[in-house]
Each structure stands twice: as C-alpha cells, then as structure tokens.
Amino acid sequence: MKKPTSKVIKIFLICLLGLSLIFIKGLYFKKYSRGHDKIPYYSQRDIRWSKELYGKKGTIKKSGCGPTSLAMVISGLTGREDINPKVIADWSFKHGYRAEGKGSYWSLMTNGGQAFELRVEQVSRKEKNKILKALKNGKIIIVSVDKGKIAKGGHFIVLRGITRDDRILMYDPNSVLNSNIAWNVDTILNESSKNAGEKGSPFWVFSKK
C-alpha cells in the first residue's frame, strides 16, 4: 500500500483546518445577533488616524479610545460619513474634554453626544435592568471600564447590541478580538469604572432625537 504523499497530506490538513474554523465560527457566533448594524467599527490603531495628535501630546492610538468610541456612535446614529476618530478627537480637544496624560473627561460623552444632536442619558453601574432594556430597544451605550478582562487600564468601549440570551455585543476601539466576543453583562458591570464610586454612572445611553 502506497504511503500518502506530502501533497495529499497538505490538502487533508487544509480541509481539516477549514472545517475547524467553520465549527468554531458556528460555536461562538451563530447564535448571536449582529446587534445594531448601522454602527461602524473604528479602531484607534487604524493607520488613517492612529498617529494623529490627541491634544498637546499623545496620539489617538495611545489615548483616543474616548473620541473613537464616540465617533462610532455619532457616525452610526446620525448617518454622517464625515465623522471619524480624528474629527471627534479634534473637537474634544478644542472644547476642553481632553485629559492630558490620561485620556478624555467623562463629560465628553454627554456633551459631545448632545452637540451632535443625540439624546444622551447617564446610567449607574447598578442599573443592570435599565442597561439591558436600553440595548434591547436598539439604543447604543458607551461605558468606561477599569483594568480587568476587557482592558489593561481605564478605557471606553461601545455596547452595540444584545443577544437573545442577554449577552452583550461590544465594539472595543482597541481590540478586534474583544469586538468579536459576546460578553456576559456581569463582566461588563463588574469592570465598569468606579471612579465615581460604587454607584457611579459610567454608562452613557445614546439614541436619536
């Protein structure tokens, strides 16, 4: 009996890999909805703006998670194609929302959203049901998180949808991987920022006026 040639073995391995990827994709993504399909994904690492200054020093790549998250929300909910992380980063700095050496002040989310004609409601990290209801009603949320499974430090992310089993669809401006995972809501609540205390309000709910 002839031994299989290296070419046959290679084809077999490629087919096996393909089947594995299909299985993994189905396992992790098939049962999840797409979430809000009008919200674009922007990465602060995108070469189109990653090296652009955010404020007097620092770049969008290093400290622009706030403007990048807000750009996703504004662009998606208003349909404005001229909105991107650089546009919002420049706007944020001009209007005093850049926290030099840190990132962005929380007020960027409320005032920035309203300036671009969106409704914005700040919600407490203790209001789990309100957060879930907002997502089920098609609203978009930005949340500030602390160091944990999601981020290595203070960070803004976008919550863009919810699955039928109440898992959260996220757009992380610093991680494509995080953006392709359906997250347990309790993980997000537990890692949401405590800068304003245990009952602080690091969630901003956005919707059209």
UniProtKB/TrEMBL annotation:
Pfam families: Peptidase_C39_2. One of its GO terms (molecular function) is hydrolase activity. Residues 38-174 form the Peptidase C39-like domain. InterPro entries: Peptidase_C39-like. Keywords: Hydrolase. This is Murein hydrolase. It comes from Clostridium niameyense.
